[in-house]
DNA sequence: GTCTATAGCGAGATAGAC
DNA sequence: GTCTATCTCGCTATAGAC
C-alpha cells in the first residue's frame, strides 16, 4: 500500500493532487477542506488521494512544510550575509515578499494560523530554526540590546510589507477599492518602505 | 423553542456559553471547533447550546460580529475627529491595539481569516462600513491622491502595530524567546512607532 | 431550563474489481 | 494506477423525560 518512489510516470497524478491540495488548503485551512473537493479539483478520484498520500493530514503536512520553507527562506536570506548593505537587503526583502504575495495572497494567513494553532511546530519538526541559527553565524541567539534593535527593525519591516496583504480584503471592502487599485498601492510601497525603515534604523541608533 | 428574552435569571448560562464559544472559536476557528468542546468549556450540556443559540453557525456569527466591532471600532475612532493632532491619534491607536491584543492575542488572525474566506462580509451584513463612511464625514470615498497617502499611512501604522502580534509565535520559536521577553518588546514599540510614522508622513508630503 | 439518548448525515478511509 | 461502492466514525442537531 506504500507509494513506490522510483516509477517514472506516476509523477503527473501526484503533482496534480498536490497542486489541488495547495489551492484548497490555502483557501480554507485544514479543517474546512474536504478531501473530496481536493480530488475534484485535481480531476481524479478520491481513492487516489489516499493511494498517493495515505491521509489528509499527511498531505497537509507536506504542503505546509513546503510553504513554510518558501515563506521563511526569504527572511533567512535576509539574515545572513552581514556584509551586504542594510538598505539593499531591505529592498530585496520587500521585493521578494511583494512578488511572492501578489502571486500567493493567502500564504501569510495560512502559515500564521497554522503556527498559532500549533506553536510547537518549529521546536518539533522544523529545519527552519536550524537555518536561522546558521544564517546568524551559529552564534547562540541571546536577547541582547543590539539584537533587540535588529529584531524591532525586522518586525517593523515585515509588518509594513506583509500586513497590507493580510488586511487587504478588509480595506478593499471598507474603502470600496478594486483589486487593481489596491495592487497599485502595494507596488508603490516598494519604494516607500526602505526610506521609512532607514529612518527607523537611525532613530534606534540615535536613542543610545 | 425560541429563546425568551426578558426572563432575568437565564443570562448566566447564556453568558457562560458565549464566553466558552469565544475561547474555542478564537483558538481554532469555526471548522475545527466542536460544539461539544464549547459545551464542556461552559460546564453545561451540549443540548443547552442549541437551546440557547439554535446552531453552531449562529453562535459563531454572534461572536464574530462582536469581535469585528471591537477590532474595527479602534480604526473608526482614529478616522473621525479630524481636529485632533495626528501624532496624538496615532499614539492612541497604537496604545489601544497594544492593550487589546495583549489581552486577546488571537483576535487579528481570527478576524482576518474570516474575512479572507468570506470577503463579502462587509458588503452583506456589516454596519462597520457605514461607520467608516460616517467617520469620514459622509464624503464619498474616492481614491484620490491625498486619501491614498492617508491610506498608506494607515496601512503602515496598522502593520507595525498589529503584525508583531500575528507573527509572535514564529518569532518566539525562531529566536527562542519567552512570552515575557516578547511582550517587553511589544511594549517598547508603543514609544517607537509614533516617531517612525511621523517621519513617514513627512516623507510622503515631501514627495509632492 | 437542563439533562440523556439518539437520529441523521457528512467526511475520511478502505475493499476490491478492473 | 484508477475506479465504484461502502464501511465507519465523529459531529451537529433534536426528541423527549424530568
Please describe the structure with a list of short key phrases separated by commas or semicolons.
208 residues; homodimer; DNA-binding; Arc Repressor Mutant, subunit A; mainly alpha; globular; 11 helices
Description of the structure:
- The structure is a homodimer of 208-residue chains.
- With 208 residues, the first copy, chain A, is mostly helical.
- Chain A folds into two domains: 1-54, Orthogonal Bundle (Arc Repressor Mutant, subunit A); 64-206.
- Chain A is 78% helix and 0% strand.
- Chain A contains eleven helices and no strands.
- Chain A has helices at 11-32, 35-42, 46-53, 56-79, 86-103, 107-117, 121-125, 128-135, 145-166, 168-175, 179-206.
- In chain A, helix 5 packs parallel to helix 9 and helix 5 packs antiparallel against helix 11 (179-206).
- Chains A and B meet through helix 1, helix 6, helix 7, helix 8 and helix 9 of A and helix 1, helix 6, helix 7, helix 8 and helix 9 of B.
- Chain A binds a DNA duplex (18 and 18 nucleotides) through helix 3.
Strand content of chain A: under 5%
Series of secondary-structure elements of chain A, N-terminal to C-terminal: HHHHHHHHHHH
Largest sheet report of chain A: none
State the distance separating the first and last CA atoms of chain A.
63 Å
Largest interface: chains, residues each: A-B, 58 and 59 residues
Low-pLDDT regions of chain A: 1-9
**Structural class designation of chain A:** mainly alpha
Number of strands of chain A: 0
Bulk shape of chain A: globular
The number of domains of chain A = 2
Taking Cα atoms only, what radius of gyration of chain A do you get, to the nearest Å?
20 Å
Number of contiguous helices of chain A: 11
Helix content of chain A: over 70%
Average pLDDT figure of chain A: 88
